[in-house]
């Protein structure tokens, strides 16, 4: 699973950092130990945090929102109640965040993300950009995984596998993959894609990759022990209070390393997310939560883990922090 776009107006924010860009869409570089890699100059559009339809902003509106007006905007947003829509969603499905996520990705969200994760041309500009961002996250996660050598025979749990965008490449690398997702629809699609890509067209001389084991499970229900646990673009659906427990549980399943991606919480990202929540539109998405890198790191430290590698992936409508943690 991942996160989607709410406002697609090209409102640019520029940040300047001393280090060179971390990732390339075509050839992701290797990540270095305990080094935070950030782009020199990155232009951010309003980020992808719900599937709502955006209003159109003209040049005057952009000028008002830009620059020093961000502080004033923050004050206005502080008077709004973004939790109201979240509470309504939970009531509608008779549960909490977990039930909202399950309901969404088994129904309208499944159709939306099946297109985004797939190869169809039936996507808009924002969805195509999100597809690129997610694929970059997958590519760089695989780079992290293969830095230490071959994955042949390595047990990996892909927690929140979606339609198999990570599980299938890992199986091709020879990993023994357990792929899980809270959505039965997503798991069924992932299994279908795996059968088509891993088994179809194989001749008798080439050994077929080991098919991933697909299971319908939420993060808190996962069990077993694995060399590596990977959880990409899932934590955005849960608040930090829930994420802390999920991170601890995932770490308890991993023997050697844990790879996580999450939407980073910064001042600008938080304000822009709040803007998106002012315009929910007719399309209902899951609730979106940003997480600070410091909070994620503290959650790992509490269970005896430390961040070993870290990087930032951004496109115009997608952003994610990617970290690899190991036992301290």
Automatic annotation (TrEMBL):
Transmembrane segments: none
One annotated GO molecular function: magnesium protoporphyrin IX methyltransferase activity
Keywords, ordered alphabetically: Methyltransferase, S-adenosyl-L-methionine, Transferase
Record-linked Pfam families: Methyltransf_31, Mg-por_mtran_C
Chain ranges of the Methyltransferase domain: 153-200
Classification lineage: Eukaryota, Viridiplantae, Streptophyta, Embryophyta, Tracheophyta
Name by which UniProt lists this protein: Magnesium protoporphyrin IX methyltransferase
Organism: Quercus lobata
Stretches assigned to the Magnesium-protoporphyrin IX methyltransferase C-terminal domain: 231-326
UniProt GO BP: chlorophyll biosynthetic process; methylation
Comp. bias intervals (Pro residues): 18-28
Region (Disordered): 1-29
Keyword Nucleotide-binding: no
């Amino acid at each position: 699973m991942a996160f989607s776009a709410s406002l697609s107006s090209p409102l640019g924010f520029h940040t300047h950092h001393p280090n060179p860009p971390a990732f390339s869409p075509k050839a992701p570089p290797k990540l270095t130990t305990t080094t935070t890699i950030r782009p020199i100059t990155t232009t951010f559009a309003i980020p992808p945090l719900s599937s709502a339809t955006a209003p159109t902003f003209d040049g005057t509106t952009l000028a008002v929102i830009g620059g020093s007006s961000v502080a004033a905007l923050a004050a206005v947003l502080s008077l709004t109640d973004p939790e109201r829509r979240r509470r309504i969603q939970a009531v509608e499905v008779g549960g909490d965040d977990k039930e909202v996520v399950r309901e969404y990705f088994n129904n309208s969200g499944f159709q939306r993300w099946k297109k985004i994760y797939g190869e169809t041309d039936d996507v808009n500009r924002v969805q195509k950009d999100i597809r690129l961002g997610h694929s970059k996250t997958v590519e760089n996660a695989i780079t992290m995984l293969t830095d230490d050598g071959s994955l042949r025979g390595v047990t990996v749990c892909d927690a929140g596998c979606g339609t198999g965008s990570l599980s299938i490449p890992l199986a091709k690398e020879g990993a023994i993959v357990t792929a899980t997702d809270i959505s039965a629809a997503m798991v069924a699609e992932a299994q279908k894609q795996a059968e088509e890509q891993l088994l179809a067209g194989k001749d008798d001389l080439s050994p077929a990759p080991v098919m991933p084991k697909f299971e319908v499970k939420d993060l808190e229900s996962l069990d077993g022990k694995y060399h590596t646990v990977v959880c990409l673009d899932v934590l955005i659906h849960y608040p930090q209070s829930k994420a802390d427990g999920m991170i601890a549980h995932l770490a308890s399943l991993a023997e050697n390393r844990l790879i996580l991606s999450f939407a980073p919480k910064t001042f600008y990202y938080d304000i822009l997310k709040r803007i998106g929540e002012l315009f929910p539109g007719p399309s209902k998405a899951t609730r979106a939560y940003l997480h600070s890198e410091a909070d994620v790191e503290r959650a790992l430290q509490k269970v005896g883990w430390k961040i070993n590698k870290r990087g930032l992936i951004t496109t115009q409508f997608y952003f994610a922090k990617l970290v690899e943690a190991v036992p301290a």
